[in-house]
Structure to design on (127 residues):
């Protein structure tokens, strides 16, 4: 487990101890954002596999099927190129969205840390 994951787990443990409405709202937002991040990582993985399969198909056809590129009207050639290009475009878009979403999730963790500090100060009373 990385240091970042340990810090996040520590924040989650601390926020789970609080029963206020604000803590519950932050827990729900963090849970939703983490679930969406997992979905995005899965989508990025699947798009990467699809793109590499398309590239592998084109490489296979280039090496082992030389007549493949001579006839430009072949459906298989058009399909493979279209699939590879579409996968690349979607991969770039989803990766950008994942980076933006990751920044959003880091902001949620910061909110969680601030809430823990303020609730700890309110529980301990004035110094």
């Amino acid at each position: 487990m990385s240091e970042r994951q340990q810090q996040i787990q520590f924040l989650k443990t601390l926020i789970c101890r609080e029963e206020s409405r604000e803590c519950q709202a932050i827990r729900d937002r963090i849970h939703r954002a983490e679930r969406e991040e997992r979905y995005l990582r899965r989508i990025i993985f699947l798009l990467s596999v699809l793109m590499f399969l398309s590239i592998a198909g084109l490489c296979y056809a280039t090496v082992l099927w030389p007549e493949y590129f001579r006839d430009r009207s072949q459906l298989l050639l058009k399909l493979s190129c279209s699939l590879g290009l579409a996968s690349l475009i979607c991969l770039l878009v989803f990766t950008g969205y994942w980076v933006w979403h990751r920044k959003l999730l880091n902001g949620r963790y910061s909110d969680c840390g601030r809430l823990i500090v303020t609730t700890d100060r309110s529980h301990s009373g004035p110094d």
